[in-house]
Write a structure and sequence with these properties.
The protein has 368 residues and is α/β, with parallel strands linked by helices. 41% of the residues lie in helices and 17% in strands. The longest helix is centred in the C-terminal third of the chain and has 19 residues.
């Protein structure tokens, strides 16, 4: 009896991407083995963090890195580090920010809800979110003006389906923060394959989710300036106590980084392209479905499948197709942000051949 049967759990094929409510990603056997081994051992946790920092430096070229519980924790602790540094007195006081710079500026369109409001990550550190510009857009001058009044940090997000308004040039925004003497933090949660590009903006800290495409156990990575990374770690004795990484998470991250270092990215990308192309070719043979491959808009090195549903020919609209896949067995989950526009969007990264085939079978049963 496996874990699904043992606990009466829904069997899921996750074509919705690295989505937290569906368990995010699938770790490799080696990563799983590293986490399992860690569960049966004792460690000096500071040594584990030092090893993770060294691995992060090898992978990214940054000055330092730290493992935290998740990317959301990484945002809160990065802000705490920017506000208070590693001062023991301030670490013990937060979220009471009395006497500290406590304004965190972010473009209004970056104030997203990714399962909870990102501004709550700011408030958890004792800081106050300050929105620059409007949902329609935010000029660099508006960011710089908002940073003029004793700001603690500038928080920026990588453009995604959640971010609203015209794109903000991250490099220019980071430069504006630095002109005001303010550290810039980039939330690049699902962008672990683009860490180099995000660090190249000049950002002081970049936060990523290690359990997304890096496929570690649940963890976040905070990477960047050595002094700020040290401060992030110092806050484990304060608000970060509730956000600390476990031994099995750090060991899993170390194994996942090792696998990423050994990965032939060109070969990996070719496998992903072939998987998507094969799916698109077969889906285009189904009644009422126009399938195409669409590159990741943020620049990750893979494409997703977009299925344009013709309700007249398919016998149901995109919402009904998605619901039919969801209520089947196994339950097939898709990305939902295109449904109102008549598109079913699927991400195939991490899916096995039999799961890809099951999605096609499910579509065939629903179309026409």
């Amino acid at each position: 009896m496996d874990i699904h049967d043992g606990h009466a759990l829904t069997r899921v094929i996750n074509a919705a991407g690295s989505f937290t409510p569906l368990g995010v990603s699938r770790s490799s056997p080696a990563v799983a083995a590293a986490a399992a081994e860690a569960l049966q051992a004792f460690f000096v946790m500071d040594e584990l963090q030092d090893a993770a920092s060294a691995a992060s430096v090898r992978l990214t070229g940054a000055q330092a890195g730290a493992v935290v519980h998740c990317a959301a924790a990484g945002i809160t602790l990065s802000i705490a580090a920017a506000m208070a540094g590693g001062s023991a007195q301030a670490v013990a006081a937060l979220p009471d920010a009395t006497g500290l710079p406590a304004r965190v500026v972010l473009p209004a369109g970056h104030a997203v809800d990714y399962g909870h409001p990102i501004v709550q990550d700011i408030r958890l550190a004792g800081a106050t979110p300050v929105l620059a510009g409007t949902d329609a857009g935010c000029a660099i001058a508006e960011i710089e003006a908002a940073l003029a009044d004793e700001a603690a940090a500038c928080l920026l997000l990588v453009s995604s389906r959640l971010v609203r308004g015209a794109p903000v040039d991250l490099g220019e925004a980071v430069a504006a923060a630095h002109r005001r003497g303010v550290p810039a933090i980039i939330d690049g949660a699902a962008q672990d394959m683009r860490i180099g590009a995000l660090l190249a903006t000049g950002a002081d800290l970049v936060v990523i989710s290690a359990q997304k495409y890096l496929a570690s156990p649940t963890a976040g990575l905070v990477i960047g300036r050595a002094d700020l990374v040290r401060a992030v770690r110092a806050h484990e004795k304060g608000i970060g106590r509730a956000m600390k990484a476990s031994k099995e998470a750090i060991c899993g991250v170390l194994a996942a980084i090792g696998e990423r270092e050994a990965l032939d990215m060109a070969e990996w990308r070719g496998v992903q392209d072939e998987k998507v192309a094969g799916f698109v070719a077969k889906a285009n043979g189904l009644a009422g479905i126009d399938a195409r491959a669409v590159p990741d808009p943020a620049g990750m090195p893979f494409a997703r499948v977009h299925l344009r549903i013709d309700p007249a020919a398919a016998g149901r609209d995109a919402l009904a197709v998605a619901d039919g896949l969801k209520t089947g067995s196994p339950s097939i989950r898709v990305m939902e942000h295109g449904l109102d526009a008549g598109e079913v969007i699927l991400e195939l990264v991490g899916l096995r051949e039999d799961e890809v085939a099951a999605i096609l079978t499910g579509l065939e049963g629903l179309a026409g």
